[in-house]
UniProtKB/TrEMBL annotation:
Domain of life of the organism encoding this protein: Bacteria
Function per UniProt: Responsible for synthesis of pseudouridine from uracil.
Keyword field: Isomerase, RNA-binding
Domain RNA-binding S4 positions: 18-75
Family: Belongs to the pseudouridine synthase RluA family.
PROSITE patterns: PSI_RLU (PS01129), S4 (PS50889)
InterPro entries, per the entry: PsdUridine_synth_cat_dom_sf, PsdUridine_synth_RluA-like_CS, PsdUridine_synth_RluC/D, PsdUridine_synth_RsuA/RluA, RluA_PseudoU_synthase, S4_RNA-bd, S4_RNA-bd_sf
A Pfam family this chain is assigned to: S4
Protein name: Pseudouridine synthase
The protein's Enzyme Commission number: 5.4.99.-
Lineage: Bacteria, Bacillati, Actinomycetota, Actinomycetes, Propionibacteriales
Reaction catalyzed: a uridine in RNA = a pseudouridine in RNA
Broad EC category: isomerase
Amino acid sequence: MTQVDHRSLSVPDGLAGERVDAAIARMFGLSRTRAADLIAEGHVRLDGAEIGKSDRVLPGAVIDVTIPSMVDPLEVVPEIVEGIGIIHDDDAIVVIDKPVGVAVHPSPGWSGPTVVGHLAGAGFRIATSGASERQGIVQRLDVGTSGVMVIAKSEHAYSVLKNAFRNRTVDKTYHALVQGHPDPLEGTVDAPIGRHPKADYKFAVMADGRPSVTHYNTLEAHRFASLLEVHLETGRTHQIRVHMAALKHPCVGDMTYGADPTLGRRVGLERQWLHAVRLGFEHPETGEQVSYESTYPADLAHALEVIRDAH
């Protein structure tokens, strides 16, 4: 909820004849631009009547102003998120099973649930390293991608895991259901990825992009689609989705990257068929090799069954 602040003041003699936006700025300690915006949005009344910003004020007139508080889009709001599973928890790390439709951390333009908000709401203390809205976050999954991910709880774990991801020593395994049949059945896509030149919410293979390496292996080949096991060497935003689309085998249901909407509807998907199934790394405290897994959520399991049964 956006909180609001209601204030009423009488115009002092010294501001008689001033434009109302200038008077409000002086009386309420606002910038002239903010005052003009409040008037334009209908948040200001002069003696009970609506006004224009260039109207003049008379001494003794009562100005009523409603000031909505500016909401910080990056503020972490503690709230329990339905569907987030805790796979493992100790003093150093918490490993979760992220459902679809949940962002890892707040960002401008996203008002939905977040992983960090859930952890705060559930009473988890996580590392304070990193920007305030993504403290403890050492990796990310897209809003539309589900599966296993790790969050650092201690500062030591944060720095160790951050280095492990940077040095590519983490085993990141995904399963992707892609349209058609990749040729060869297993291979490596080594193609740099950068922001899409025409749509800033997308990415694309770009000559001047960042190095990006994806290894894939076909687990099942069906009439309309293939189930792949994918290992990420690098961790670019949308990497698997971009690389599979570049091979002309986009993830089933991934309309952003050119998937067939008819097939998406047939299997009941409104998001990409992509799931982080396994995450393996050296535990930041014990040094032992650990691995955590996540099973397919219901929507992906159903879509895969439809593909397996298609003749």
